[in-house]
Write a structure and sequence with these properties.
Chain lengths: 137, 564
């Protein structure tokens, strides 16, 4: 990846969950850090979001969930992206999730989960590190 | 003696004495030991003085402070307040199927709770049946699942609805729940005029903050209008709406924005109902409010007092209300869930205790105190009991409720209350100037203000300018929480869908289809009220999804253009 190409991030809300305070804070923090940010808005389906991430060719897809439906939604997203053979997309989660679910989601292939009260700066640096570790696509 | 200038002379003396103190005691002390910071402000950004004196309240008309139960109600909506009876202790509950929540209700009543409050799951809140594809993974998770009248019957089984008030936290689909509640009461032979409680039904704040919607704004506001007029005519003790700042605050607003935006919404509803020709005094006494109680102790008390004063003035001066009951703002209060932390979660009990005390000093009519575990999941029975006990300590042990508005008259509090009043009116004027609430929602104006304050706060937390114990100060490393979390029962969706299918199989399909056609005709005619036909529908076994999908064909669906 060229050094001056901005990191492309899609942030998404999936299902009926309307808690969008956190995702909007993250969107602004990433944009202020110079990343290209696409926010899907509310009430998308898992398939819609996964397909959009592939089409937009993003580096990172961040899913915000505070509804408790994460164990239903993440597997669908991971499956759809895998079917598209787009393994370079880094999948992140954020919101409110119990610790044991976080461990399980990471095993499934969600690379990092940043829960409530994670400082915006830490989210920025986590994304930079993960993209750097993945290397150019 | 008795010279009219005497109070002014007295103020001059105080001003002189203040200056003298500043240049002597204060100056010498600060020279030795500077204060903690240069600039002190409330959480919401109001500048704070070092100390307040009679100079700060000299310009406040004494009648604006007034007396409890009298216009403008700054000191409380009723003349005896908690000396008459305590606020209603109303812990919200809802999870799983109706039977699961019914058990929690009975537990809370057995622990001394005096009102019920119901949380619904996301599909119910958004008008989807439990077997809709969008409902997958969400049935009975964040609240109780309700599809048909059969669920409503199970939810309130064994509970005497004429003797306990029932609040339902539901918005775009609220009128369907109201219809089910009425159908249930009629089935039990109850007198509708003896039912007390509320549906939240505040759709405007959904577009601003909570983001639960179905239809576009205009038909949604018409549904709210219909609930208000239906209840005014048929349910004299029922609050058809709970105009809510809570979610505006939780979505990230400042306390000032919370109250000002809520009152902007209230103005819109009053305008919509009076357009039907109904007199303001016929429905306004049943309008109720819902605010958060945040962490800035005095700011919150001032916020509640100013909200009452501003509302009274709006109702009398702008809408020409004549009945004092129309000018009297009554509110439910909930402590602030967004202030709860996952690290060192037991500290949440302390936070909630202080917030509860501020709510009581601010004159709340009913109160929900949050469970210590709500940063993890929905609360356990044990967490809810402790939260209820917190209220019981405030009520029975602190003796705070024995005097009405006991902090009223404080130079600081009265000054802040008046500053809040002015700032609220400034925002309301701006909303009017910019073309009104609905136009500004469409433009994302409120949403942008809320997102701005939320972002500022996130940065302040990150930088330590907004301290949160256990999160950005007094942090403990690698904590293993010894917490029991409310479990989600994976059989919930199957049990729920089974009952929905039973209802569908046993109802008269032709009747339901005819009524759905009638519903669409009512929806197309602005002058009709949508509640009566909805009552017929739920009685005939129509599900929430049947009703909502029929109306989508008439009104379409709302889609937000997000701002961040």
């Amino acid at each position: 990846m060229q050094k001056d190409t901005p990191i492309r991030v899609m942030l998404a809300k999936v299902g009926l969950d309307g808690h969008d305070r956190g995702v909007k804070v993250v969107a602004r923090a990433l944009r202020d850090a110079g990343m290209d940010v696409i926010y899907t808005g509310l009430h998308r389906t898992a398939e819609e979001v996964a397909m959009a991430a592939v089409q937009e060719d993003v580096d990172v897809l961040g899913i915000s969930l505070l509804s408790g439906a994460h164990m239903t939604i993440f597997p669908k997203i991971l499956r759809t992206i895998e079917d598209q053979d787009s393994k370079g997309i880094i999948i992140l989660g954020g919101g409110v999730m119990p610790d044991e679910d976080v461990a399980e989601l990471k095993e499934m292939g969600v690379q990092e989960i940043l829960l409530q009260d994670t400082p915006p700066q830490e989210i920025v640096s986590t994304i930079r590190e993960l993209v750097a570790a993945r290397g150019p696509r | 003696m008795n010279d009219v200038s005497a109070p002014r002379d007295r103020l001059a003396e105080i001003a002189h004495s203040l200056e003298d103190w500043e240049s002597n005691e204060l100056a010498a002390f600060v020279a030795r030991q500077p204060e903690r910071k240069e600039d002190f402000r409330t959480f919401g950004g109001f500048p704070l003085k070092r100390v307040y004196t009679p100079l700060d309240t000299a310009d406040i008309p004494p009648e604006d402070i007034g007396l409890p139960g009298r216009y403008p109600f700054t000191r409380g909506p009723y003349p005896t307040m908690y000396r008459g009876r305590f606020w209603t202790m109303r812990q919200i509950a809802g999870f799983g199927t109706a039977e699961d929540t019914n058990q929690r209700f009975k537990y809370l009543i057995s622990q001394g709770q005096t009102g019920l409050s119901t949380d619904f799951d996301m599909p119910t809140l958004m008008g989807y049946d439990s077997d809709h594809p969008m409902s997958e993974g969400e049935v009975g998770r964040e609240g109780v699942a309700i599809d048909t009248l059969a669920d409503m019957e199970a939810l309130f089984e064994g509970i005497d609805l004429e003797n306990i008030s029932v609040s339902m936290t539901i918005n775009p689909s609220a009128w369907i729940l109201l219809a089910m509640y009425v159908a249930l009461a009629e089935k039990r032979g109850l007198d509708l005029n003896r039912l007390s409680g509320t549906i939240q039904a505040d759709i405007l704040k959904e577009y601003m903050a909570q983001k639960e919607w179905i239809f576009p704004i205009e038909p949604s506001v018409r549904i709210v209008r219909d609930c208000i007029t239906y209840c005014a005519r048929n349910m004299k003790r029922y609050n058809p709406i709970n105009i809510s700042g809570y979610h505006i605050s939780e979505a990230g607003s400042s306390p000032l924005q919370e109250v000002a935006f809520t009152l902007a919404n209230a103005i819109t509803y009053v305008e919509e109902v009076t357009k039907t020709g109904m007199d303001v005094d016929e429905f306004a006494p049943r309008l109720a409010f819902f605010f958060v109680c945040q962490t800035d102790f005095f700011e919150e008390i001032a916020k509640f007092r100013a909200a009452r004063r501003v509302y009274a003035k709006i109702m009398r001066e702008r809408f020409g209300a004549k009945d004092p009951a129309s000018m009297r703002l009554r509110f439910h209060c909930q402590t602030a869930a967004a202030t709860l932390t996952k690290p060192q979660y037991k500290v949440n009990i302390v936070r909630t205790g202080f917030q509860a005390l501020a709510a009581v000093l601010g004159g709340a009519q009913s109160l929900h105190t949050n469970g210590m575990d709500e940063a993890f999941a929905i609360p356990t029975e044990e967490a809810m009991k402790l939260a209820l006990r917190t209220q019981q300590v405030v009520a029975h042990e602190t003796r705070v409720p024995d005097v009405i508005d006991p902090v009223g008259g404080s130079y600081f509090l009265e000054s802040l209350t008046s500053q809040y009043e002015m700032a609220i009116f400034d925002i309301l004027d701006e909303v009017d100037r910019r073309g009104g609430t609905i136009k500004l929602i469409n433009e994302g104006w409120f949403q942008r203000h809320i997102a701005d304050f939320a972002y500022e706060l996130a940065i302040k937390k990150q930088d330590g300018d907004h301290p949160v114990v256990g999160v950005n100060c007094y942090v403990e490393e690698a904590e293993e929480p010894d917490i029991e979390i409310h479990p989600y029962d994976p059989t919930t969706a199957d049990r729920q869908i089974a009952r929905l299918n039973e209802v569908r199989a046993s109802r008269d399909e032709a009747t339901v289809q005819n009524l759905l056609e009638k519903l669409k005709a009512v929806a197309r005619n602005e002058d009709e009220n949508i509640v009566p036909v909805t009552i017929e529908l739920v009685r005939a076994g129509a599900s929430m999804g049947d009703i909502v999908e029929a109306l989508r064909t008439v009104w379409g669906t709302y889609r937000e253009t997000p701002v961040f």
